[in-house]
Amino acid sequence: MKIQMYGWSISYDTAGEGVPLLFIHGYPLSRKIWEPQASGLAAYARVILPDLRGHGDSDATPGPYSMDLLAEDCASLLNNLGITQPVVVCGLSMGGYIALAFYRKFAERISGLILTATRAGADSPEGKANRDKAIALAKSSGAGAIADSMLPKMFAPSTYADQPNLVEHVRGMMAGTSVEGIVGALQAMKDRPDSTPLLPTITKPVLIIHGSDDQLIPLSEAQMMQKTIVGAELVIIERAGHLLNMEQPGAFNQAIRQFIRRC
Length: 263
Ligand code: MLT
Hints:
It contains eleven helices and eight strands. It has about 260 residues and is an alpha/beta fold.
């Protein structure tokens, strides 16, 4: 489905009824990463799956993007869907950076926060330099080159070896992202603020889910967030990497089902 925003259109899916559960995908992906959650959780919640600006079937707009802008897009989608009650917000990786921005801007709209395969800190100087290299690669060689450079690190080594169809599915998603969207997201990640000072101020229930074999964002980042957010729960999913929700959907969905009962 599509909704017209100011000068561009956002694509999204919804499934199920009940507690609103907003899933925010990572970079350079799309709402399709949440297919196992749409099918596994629609009996328990109203699942809302947007494609971020410049990703999936949503239109790309010229940059610069920011985490705040992408969080505002998610809030506008909820407004357009008439969802005024608090929602559980689940963000994966860059989606987690956006979920933290959403909390900063709209804490009253959140009933629970799920931070998965993500981190609170800003980019290091080396990380920022790598964003510039990726921007140059996207502009010179396109989304396929970005997909090839990232793909092996998106999964646990065991998933990469054993699930070639899943790997190919994700490659297609990445290669289908617009260069404008890729550059916008890279710039937004490079400039994102450090959310570490926010963590001890969070007063909503928080679930952190991380893959034991995440090669992009180490497990220690999740452990640090759990120590800093009062009452946060950490679920570690074994034999799962950065895309743990697709690699081990049963364990991932079970953790979410238990959490939404708490919210
Ligand atoms: C993501 O998976 O969303 C990104 O790779 C996160 C990042 O590059 O910081």
